[in-house]
């Protein structure tokens, strides 16, 4: 009798191959999948070829410009995705039992915000958590986090996507700014309509540069806010707030800038706010968020980095006023739960939280409600909208690259 132990799972050698297929489905290409798996592109291709030989049907349709799942590939990815996700969550849970958080956190942030405020916080963070490594990618394009394998994004927005967990780091404000020299030379506008006669430095976007403003209603004078829209022109347009800020400092004109990019120059008196009673509308976001693709469990390394950034950025950047915070950092309408999430009494989407310690959570939304993904009363009740990972993969591949995901 052959005493050699026989495997009770003869397909076990194919598990890494199925995982590779799922990674291709999620990332959208062999190249990105290879990077996420830590393998060469040739090794990933070999795994897919071996898997296709083993199952006897094609799983991918390859062209010179795209990769798409076949119907068999969609079925295999959709039916195994939950198992691999559970394995990943279990590994994260076991890793979180370590005395110190550890692992790699891949993070993306806009160029100006990352250079001025996110990057400078990493030195103290890495000294505090020596077991954590960070990769910071600075880019102003809209990154698909799951598609490109990022754990975290810092974003300037007013509406975090519902498909992501969102931690509010701080409030933000858009400022209309000019240099003292420019205002002495050209005069100070008193109403948005006057901007049509000034040199303005618009953000580079398609179509004419249209700036919109809103003035709060004055008690006893009017019940509705006054609104104004004006088309502006100037010598320079750019898609980077630091470039526009430097042009404003040089006296080339006025510009709408996020407070985080110009706060230091305003505090130093090198820039002055214009039309402070008028609020720019529909331009930059009104808050800074940390975003993460929705998952039932957030690794301790990611939570630690979010909490570090929140503690550093929570005061905000507005040079004119301090951002209010709730008593003890908690917003009273929300209650703690044993899940470490904050929910209202009725089932609904929850706001995201970041842990101050392993067993203590703080609201990251200040006194505002921040909507996140479709998580309800239990972290395992996670639904995938639109037909599962394979369907999401094919929808992603159908989008224009210019959309940024």
Major β-sheet strand ordering: 4-3-5-13-6
Instruction: Give the strand content.
Output: 15-25%
Q: Shape from CA axes? A: elongated
Q: Write down how many β-strands occur, each being a DSSP E stretch of 2 or more residues.
A: 17
CATH class of the largest domain: Alpha Beta
Main sheet makeup:
5 strands, mixed
Radius of gyration, CA atoms, in whole angstroms: 25 Å
Number of domains: 3
Output the number of helix runs. Answer: 11
Corresponding CATH architecture of the largest domain: 3-Layer(aba) Sandwich
Taking the alpha carbons of the first and last residues, their distance comes to 58 Å
On the 0-100 scale, what is the average pLDDT?
77
CATH homologous superfamily grouping of the largest domain: Periplasmic binding protein-like II
Coarse structural class: alpha+beta
């Amino acid at each position: 009798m052959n005493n050699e132990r026989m495997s009770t799972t003869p397909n076990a050698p194919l598990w890494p191959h199925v995982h590779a297929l799922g990674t291709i489905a999620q990332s959208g290409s062999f190249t990105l999948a290879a990077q996420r798996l830590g393998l060469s592109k040739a090794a990933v291709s070999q795994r897919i070829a071996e898997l296709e030989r083993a199952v006897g049907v094609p799983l991918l349709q390859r062209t010179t410009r795209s990769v798409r799942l076949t119907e068999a590939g969609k079925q295999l990815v959709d039916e195994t995705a939950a198992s691999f996700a559970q394995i990943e969550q279990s590994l994260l849970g076991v890793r979180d039992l370590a005395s110190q958080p550890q692992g790699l956190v891949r993070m993306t942030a806009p160029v100006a915000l990352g250079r001025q405020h996110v990057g400078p916080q990493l030195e103290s963070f890495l000294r505090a958590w020596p077991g954590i490594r960070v990769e910071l990618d600075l880019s102003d394009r809209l990154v698909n986090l799951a598609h490109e394998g990022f754990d975290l994004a810092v974003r300037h927005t007013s509406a975090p996507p519902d498909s992501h967990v969102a931690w509010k780091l701080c409030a933000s404000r858009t400022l209309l700014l000019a240099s003292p020299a420019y205002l002495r030379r050209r005069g100070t506008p008193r109403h948005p309509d006057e901007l049509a006669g000034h040199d303005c430095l618009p953000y580079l976007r398609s179509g004419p540069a249209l700036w919109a403003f809103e003035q709060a209603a004055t008690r006893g004078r009017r019940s509705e806010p006054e609104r104004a829209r004006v088309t502006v022109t100037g010598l320079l347009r750019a898609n980077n707030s630091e470039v526009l800020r430097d042009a404003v400092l040089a006296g080339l004109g006025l510009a709408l800038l996020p407070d985080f990019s110009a706060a230091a120059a305003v505090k130093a008196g090198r820039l002055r706010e214009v039309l402070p009673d008028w609020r720019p509308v529909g331009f930059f976001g009104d808050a800074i968020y940390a975003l993460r693709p929705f998952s039932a469990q957030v690794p301790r390394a990611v939570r630690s980095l979010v909490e570090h950034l929140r503690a550093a950025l929570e005061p905000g950047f507005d040079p004119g006023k301090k951002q209010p915070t709730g008593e003890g950092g908690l917003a009273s309408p929300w209650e703690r739960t044993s899940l470490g999430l904050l929910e209202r009494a009725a089932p609904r989407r929850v706001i995201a939280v970041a842990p101050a310690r392993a067993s203590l959570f703080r609201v990251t939304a200040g006194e505002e409600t921040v909507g996140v993904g479709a998580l309800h009363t239990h972290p395992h009740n996670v639904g995938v909208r639109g037909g599962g990972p394979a369907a999401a993969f094919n929808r992603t591949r159908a989008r224009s690259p210019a959309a940024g995901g």
